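thread: overnight batch results

M.L. [08:02]
morning all. the overnight job finished for the chain we discussed friday. pasting input first so we're all looking at the same thing
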Amino acid sequence: MTFKLNFEMNKSLSTFKDQLNHIIKSEIDKPYIKTEWKNNVLQIVVDKMGKSEIRIKFTDINEDICRIEEESRNISMMHKPFVGEVEKIVSNIFVNKLGAKNV
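M.L. [08:03]
and the structure it wrote out:
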């Protein structure tokens, strides 16, 4: 079962982006996974046996709170069986490593 990513953090957007970039570089460094920031939207592309893309929007609510919302996803047919596992990994990074809360 898939869900729409929706989190809130008690951190500023700039602090959160710095921490997230560090985690991406250290834990998700695969040649077939590309990440790119476009303003405050993180685009993640997996290009292996099909191409999937997810876009996650980050919004500063105030200086101390950041909202994280899934903007869109386009999952290739070959990747659909693994979506649940990827969602668990993303949730683990946001909640357990960065301190976000599901909203």
